[in-house]
Structure prediction request, 845 residues.
Amino acid sequence: MVFSSLTFMYIYLPIILGIYFLVPKVLRNSVMFIAGLLFYAWGEPVYLWIMILSTIIDYTAGLFMHKYDDKPAIRRLCLLVSILMNVGLLSVFKYSGFFVSTINSVIGTSIPVPNVSLPIGISFYTFQSMSYTIDLYMRNISVQKNPVTFATYVTLFPQIVAGPIVRYSDVQNEINHRTISIDMVGEGVAIFIKGLAKKVLLANNIGALWATVKAQEISSLPAATAWLGILAFTFQIYFDFSGYSDMAIGLGKMLGFNFPENFNFPYVSKSISEFWRRWHMTLGSWFKSYVYIPLGGNRKGLGRTAFNLFITWMLTGFWHGASWNFVIWGAYFGVIIILERLFLGNWLKKIPAVLQVAYSFILVVFGWVLFEFDELSNVFLYFKAMFGGNALGFANADTLYYLLSYILVFAICIFFSSDICQKLALKIKAKFPKVWEYATPAVCIIVLLICTAYLVDATYNPFLYFRF
Amino acid sequence: MNGKKLLAVLFSVVLVSLAVITAFSKKSSFSEEENRNLATFPSFSLSAIGDKSFMNGFDSYISDHFFGRNFWVNLKSNLELLTLKKENNSILLTSRDSLVEDLEEPEERKIGLNISGIESFAKNNPDAKIYMAIAPTALDIYSDTLPYGKSTWSQKAVIDDFYSKISKSAYGIDIYTSLYSNRDQYIYYNTDHHWTTLGAYYAYTQIATALDFKPYDKSPFDVEHASYDFKGTYSSKSKIPVTADTIDIYSLASSDLKVTEVIVNDGKEEKSYDSIYFREWLGKKDKYSVFLGQVQPEITVKTNVQNNRKLLIFKDSYAHSLLPFLALHYSEIKLIDLRYTNQNYRDLANVSDYNDVLLLYNIDSIAHSFEIATLGD
Prediction:
């Protein structure tokens, strides 16, 4: 089920929220658990069992770790079982095709490439589930003995399909005792509608331009069109993904959960290091806590730090998709981050802020080319187009047409992706608090109705991060 | 009540009321606006859940029957205008506030097949007098009003080229020039892919001259405004709001000439009517079908014209609004639509019975399909 759909907003949500608020507190987790199963099964009826299996194994591993608290060997074994099982599930259901075809091309075998379909959200719930066993092993959290409570954590419908990656430690308290208030529901609604608008009004709109450009032969694109296309994608993926995260966070708030932020205006970053502290923040912090730090972080000298960074970033890229362009995408950022640590960062601090932002933004846009094309040959072809390699000149009549058709949408995207909009909002709120307080609900409801109109009309409503 | 509580309450009200009304409102089975059947509630079974057909069916059902569906769709298309986008689903909004379809470049292979078909047809019917009239669409006639930066290919060049290639087999009638020189008049619908009756009239004047009879002047015709709110295929496809079209019916005032019988063969049976106008369509969405009804494989029109001349037309739907004019000059006209029949034309008509054979198509049929090629069989 997709949040930005009529079924979710006008059938599932009112029913689930209604039941959730009416039942006694002690039943709330049970309601969430069943709601989560229903939500997941709606999109993935057959592979529901994988999620249930992962839940049972991690819950049991947690119990054993707690029972044999004084036996480090057994605790380590439980951790190993959990990690192997989760990574194993990912390997089979997400990466098996990739592994086999890579082996085939490297050593020349012809093993039949398995064609396993990717269960929705497997990259998210396996990572969330692993955070429980790893943090339990490291004694950062306490065990969850109630199976329903644990299962509720894994199947929490707001973030099971597309994040944010919520660690058990983030919701440890709230999963057991949470308060819900109408105020919090109101806050959650505002965030949810903000996310819905980002997805339905902005991402889908600018995404149509990318779809038009991508449909053409790359070799037929003049430079400016290629740039317009990838810039369109740059905004599409931001509003799509951050919009979905906002909807998840908003839903969480309605239910009494405070999920961590996932995006913080990443396109105003002044360096790539900063970019990854503002983009998909929960993923970056997951890899930092559970891969980079255990590998030694930056505590074992410069060479080892560079190595740790490189491995971590390759894996981060690899998490995004089972194909080499994602690994290279991750490594690309890894190398830049290493360079920024070594000397590039210091150089950057000496140039004007606007150039720092331009530097980061352009490198991120290049990154998206790597991200969007599975075939590396197409990556090269697209860069070639962007730098005028198609010998078609800078622009043609179509370029002008695209620019004029989308200039307003681009302007709106730039405004809402920079933190100017947030600063402006805070200024208005400070100066006219009462107006702000009562204008917000009115604007939100109007936006909700407009988004509903778009959903009813939907001819174009894909969600990008569903590959994961 | 503070702002947050207010928002929570409003949100609940919107969600619950739309959900409840949608659930309990009466469901129609057919959408006039979209000209299609609306989804029925999906069947519920284990296998329907397993292959997600239940879920997908449920989603379709909810969106098809969502309360106020047409209201929401119109709201969205009006809002879209604010974003200055002038295109949706290949339909462009011109500076004349009309809609045109952005046709793709012509497909050489299909044009070639059509030419071969016509050449074979001419060879197989050496005594037939074969004429061809290819109509441009509004996209070309008004190509100078397209959104800034948008350009299109020359339909005139394709038409002229086609005519020169079939010149040994058929006489190509230039209707482009007459249409273009009258482009300031209402000759194409703003919301549909057809020409208006007036546009068809101008084409008729050129066809008449080619077929060797004098076309009637415009003045003796009575113009009946049969409908003022026609929104055709371009509106449905793009949902860009523009003013509705008027459908006109031209009849020769004070004339004894009339259609005596219309025989429609829909491929299974023949039905007889007494008028070329099927007025029940004026009350539905597809108002252009007032002209000769929906497209059928074969229609025979008999008139009381006393010259015993017969015309055979191979056509697409552009011919429907032009027929009333040709019917003033022939005692019998047979229209065959090759797209809607599997039969060879010989099973439907004996070419030697007819004085003239006219191939009447719009540029889209020439450039993007090859049903005409079956004429060569």
About this structure: Chain B touches chain A at residues 2-12, 14-16, 18-19, 22, 49-50, 52, 55, 58-59, 62-63, 66, 69, 72-73, 75-77, 79, 83-87, 89, 147-151, 239 (CB under 8 Å). The first helix of chain B runs from residue 3 to 24.
